[in-house]
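Re: that backbone. Tokens:
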């Protein structure tokens, strides 16, 4: 039973980022354990790969924009040493209604102040059409264009970061299930993984859609719901330029699209609760109990979400005419998790010394994961974290 300075459970972006930052923070023996035979096998492989300063334009008091800028920098630096498919063409948030056009204008001033004048522009419909000729200019009001945004291949980025973790001396154990978190006398002592006890006084749980179930085994309850999200790639489309910015349509189900493999990658941000989770939660409520042991996202569900996205995309062909002719070539699905107040979960589990939780990815974990991993590492190694992340305290529900 060898001792470790830290154990991280989960080889998606949250776990890999935590492990990498724990090494960077100076820990000697850091072990990352992942159940699947490869890293980024679950929700992280499903990510659409949009990296952008999503919170730019909101109050500076919130930690999210700082997380985003840190993440963007980290991936840019990673792309200098690894192939992660990074394509820097910016993102255009496109307004199709007068109300959103007005909101966009007022957001523009704030974004300019936060990111710098050269990082953001308000585009007229014709300017947008020049950058993204697939958009019909007569059907849009304008766009807020942010240069500081790019796309990447999420699984490749996670694996590249893990390579750096290993190069720093970190240890990976793949294909190994953590069945138990060992707690004694209010302190974490380690885990049982693959039937073997592995000791450590620090354990970071970054188990994605399985976080809730794993914590339930040690009596910690989180109101975490796993949802199903899907995105698809179309057949090659001659009219899609490779250098087109990523596009988002906040007035239309947050439909997003970007160039991918000579076609388009398409998705939207509706929330579909994982059906068995919902059913089980509802039955518990009907019995007068609070839902407790629901293992979110664990059983394979037939994916119907992308059919809905396809239908929505085709119905938007008056704005983006090429959507009228798309066919699905590849679908990816994952299980992002959400909590009632729609903030992340990052911090020490109340009452258990040395047990740190990282979850509630809110479907933006590729962007926020690097910064959240750094925060958890600072907390676990140095005992401090920025005060703004009090909003992410795992025990905030009492
Ligand atoms: C369709 C879609 C589009 C998205 N688009 C974007 C986007 O454009 N930009 C963005 O920023 N984010 C996006 N996201 C969100 C992003 O993918 C997630 O936020 C992120 O991948 C979550 O990472 P994670 O590490 O928490 O989860 P996961 O990647 O699921 O990792 C958790 C890991 O823990 C492992 N695990 C669980 N239990 C155990 C156990 N007991 N023992 C060992 N290992 C265990 C699992 O096998 C899994 O590999 C998207 C997600 C989807 C599904």
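Recovered sequence:
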């Amino acid at each position: 039973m060898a001792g470790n300075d830290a154990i991280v459970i989960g080889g998606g972006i949250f776990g890999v980022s935590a492990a990498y930052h724990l090494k960077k923070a100076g820990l000697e023996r850091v072990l990352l354990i992942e159940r699947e035979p490869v890293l980024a096998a679950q929700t992280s492989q499903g990510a659409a790969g949009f990296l952008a300063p999503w919170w730019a334009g909101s109050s500076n008091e919130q930690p999210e924009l700082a997380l985003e800028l840190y993440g963007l920098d980290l991936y840019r630096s990673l792309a200098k040493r690894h192939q992660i498919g990074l394509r820097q063409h910016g993102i255009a948030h496109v307004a199709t209604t007068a109300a959103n056009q007005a909101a966009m204008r007022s957001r523009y001033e704030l974004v300019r102040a936060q990111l710098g004048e050269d990082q953001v522009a308000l585009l007229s419909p014709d300017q947008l059409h020049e950058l993204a000729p697939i958009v019909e200019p007569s059907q849009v009001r304008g766009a807020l264009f942010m240069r500081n945004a790019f796309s990447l291949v999420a699984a490749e980025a996670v694996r590249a970061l893990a390579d750096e973790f290993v190069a720093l001396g970190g240890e990976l154990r793949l294909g190994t299930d953590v069945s138990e978190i060992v707690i004694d006398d209010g302190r974490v002592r380690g885990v049982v993984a693959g039937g073997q006890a592995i000791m450590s006084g620090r354990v970071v749980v970054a188990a994605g859609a399985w976080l809730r179930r794993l914590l339930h085994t040690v009596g910690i309850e989180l109101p975490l719901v796993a949802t199903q999200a899907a995105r698809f790639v179309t057949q090659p489309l001659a009219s899609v330029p490779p250098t087109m910015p990523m596009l988002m349509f906040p007035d239309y189900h947050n439909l997003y699209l970007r160039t991918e493999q000579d076609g388009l990658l398409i998705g939207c941000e509706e929330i579909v609760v994982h059906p068995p989770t919902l059913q089980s939660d509802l039955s518990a409520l009907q019995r007068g109990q609070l839902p407790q042991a629901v293992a979110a996202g664990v059983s394979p569900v037939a994916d119907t979400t992308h059919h809905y996205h396809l239908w929505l995309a085709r119905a938007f062909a008056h704005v983006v005419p090429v959507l009228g002719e798309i066919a699905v070539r590849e679908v990816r699905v994952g299980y992002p998790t959400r909590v009632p107040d729609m903030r992340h979960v990052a911090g020490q589990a109340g009452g258990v010394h040395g047990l740190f939780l990282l979850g509630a990815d809110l479907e933006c974990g590729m962007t926020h994961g690097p910064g959240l991993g750094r925060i958890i590492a600072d907390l676990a190694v140095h005992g401090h974290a920025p005060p703004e992340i009090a909003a992410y305290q795992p025990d905030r529900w009492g």
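The two ends are 35 Å apart (CA to CA). The chain has two domains: 3-53+154-222+340-392, 87-149+225-338.
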